[in-house]
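Weekly structure sync - notes
Attendees: PM, LS, DV (DV joined late)
Agenda: review two folding runs queued last week.

Item 1: First target. Sequence and structure tokens pasted below for the record.
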Amino acid sequence: MYVWEGTDKRGVVMKGEQPAKNANFVRAELRRQGITPKIVKVKPKPLFGSAGKRVTPLDIAIFSRQIATMMKAGVPIVGALEIIGSGNKNPKMQQLVNAIRSDVESGSSLSEAISKHPVQFDELYRNLVRAGESAGVLETVLDTVATYKENLEALKGKIKKALFYPAAVVAVALIVSAILLIFVVPTFEEVFNGFGAELPAFTKMVIALSDFMVAWWWLILFGLVAAGIAIVMAFKRSPAFQHFFDRMILKVPVIGQIMHNSAIARFSRTLAVTFKAGVPLVEALDTVAGATGNTVYEKAVFRIRDDVAVGYPVNMAMKQTNLFPHMVVQMTAIGEEAGALDTMLFKVAEFYEQEVNNAVDSLSSLLEPMIMVFLGVVVGGMVVAMYLPIFKLGAVVG
């Protein structure tokens, strides 16, 4: 990216930014536009780099929507990429779009250009773009992909909201409890030692827990951090552990049902989008498996793919997995018979996405009183334990 300064034919000073391979290309482009370049230099990098400005799935969704809109308006793909790249505020996204534009300018197709960036553009995205190019409906496919990505991110946001709120409250409660046990309870213990009286059993239990925390807090902290790192590493590197974790979370009351509905919604929408774009069904199922967000459903989709490959209808293959509700199987069967599988799957996706929305809202309402009770028992219990001896002493004095 180059920054430039120059004057137009009226002598008015103008400034701007221009992506190019070198400064000479920028000068030539400016002269073509009737601007006399005075300064052309590489745009300086930010002092702290572009840390934290990673390319998110939402960035890719917005990129898809922008390029689809411009192509529908008749803007050539290279021009559309140039506009999107120069107007993006995220430096890494800007670099990504400019790299794609350079490849397309060099003669590559859009699918070939984005295939060089598999982290940002997953297999599903690449397959859809390739299918759109083959069928000559690239802008329509990109528009569909943008809608798909937006819906998927909204669904992920709902799931994160459902899981984050209780986890955050429990974490805060544990931190507050640890602070009370390490710093507050020992102060009360010194006061109680001066009483010379027998302490209540509940107070003794809290003091014993406090003594343990004061003596071994560093070991407990180290153990928690080590356990957290071990779980994350195992989840990333061990498919067996990831499958076990995903299977367990599906069995958790309320949360498990939300995860089931989420996986069904993602499966239905992803398969509908790929099938509508013209991707062959077996190939579409192969791509869809990784988009379900759960390894239990991922294995089920691979099984469906294998069954469909040898001639079974999709609905019969889905039924054999024992994961999909009867309504989903029946709607898939109706869609297959009517030759409108993608339409039926879109309806299934919309229904289950709404189910997730309702479940998350209900969960929030259900958790609030439970969290208040949890906080009252944990934090309030320690406060009561500390004041019991004082109440007992007051009764004796009285």
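Item 2: Second target, run right after the first with the same settings.
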Amino acid sequence: MIEVVYAGQEPPDEWDASIFLAGPTPRSATVPSWRPGALAELCRQSNVGVLVVFVPEAAGGTAYPDYDDQVAWEERWLDAADTILFWVPRDMATLPGLTTNVEFGRYESSGRVVLGAPEDAQHVRYLQHHARKHGAPVLPTLSDTVAAALASIEAGARRSGGERFVPLVAWRSPTFRTWVAAQQNAGNILLDGRLAWIQGQFIWAYHARMYVTAEDRVKANEFVLGRPDVVSIVAYRPGETPWRNEVVLVKEFRLPAGTSDGYVHELPGGGVLDGSPIDQAVHEMAEETGLRVAPERLRLSQVRQVVATLCAHRLHVFTVELTAEEIAYAHENPGPYGVHEDSERTFVEVRTYREILADELVDWSTLGVLNVVFSAPGP
């Protein structure tokens, strides 16, 4: 079922997917709009349960909203739409679409754009270049452009209320869903928001407006950052006291580092992109240190957020007690390790817990993990 929402109108309270029909709008009654043809193609091709289509034109026989209201309406639903279908049949004499250039520039890297233009469209090569640069489909016919837009949303996902303001490209991220579920379980209500940026489904930033039920107020001045959950492995050889535990760290050049040597010094680990956290922990341990440990040797310590004031993802901490041979191997084989073609180059460092506390090279999150692991009571 397709629900068409014209300029100034409010959409239904829930839907499975949404498409915004962006592109030149006729300014003269003698120039026909391309959007009825797009709606006809959507009706013919769509099999989405409830598909909302935003049309930034006045409904038949009605007046446009006030200019500022029109702009606000367009920006609100451009931000929310799962896919932005740009059809640009540009004719500089009759349908110049200059505003379209600005809108396309705002969303070209959003991961939500489909661009179509007929072969005789004027001055669209620059748009097409940047669409291809960002991996957006570029099509020559309206029918193909509609098909690409529908392919991008697939079956969609049912969302209601404030969830409608989360485009599918973010909604499909497990970290995003986990964050929303946690807020809902706490009794809070997502009122609306705006996806600021996203890189694939790997890392995203969302500006949310949330009703905080326990305080009966709206919180609307913060961004939430998210990425896939992360594993860290505390691989150590016990000493006479926890202070003398020998810990395997990895040293790696990372751009955010603010240490005296320009490197981060942290526990082996990485993002959980596929599979289970324990499988990822085994993989990261081998990839970053050369040490291969069987999954059954790993013990899950805790799962917590790392920086709860900013980031939504969680850290899964595993521990493994190394043999004398393994800690000797770590001492004698500093690397480099990592996936060099992905610009990952790691070096192994073996430090005692006391040395780690003293040298100020590791960050607070790493110190917090080690403190929990080494101060926790035994079984």
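Discussion on item 2: The two ends are 57 Å apart (CA to CA).
Action: LS to circulate a short write-up before next sync.
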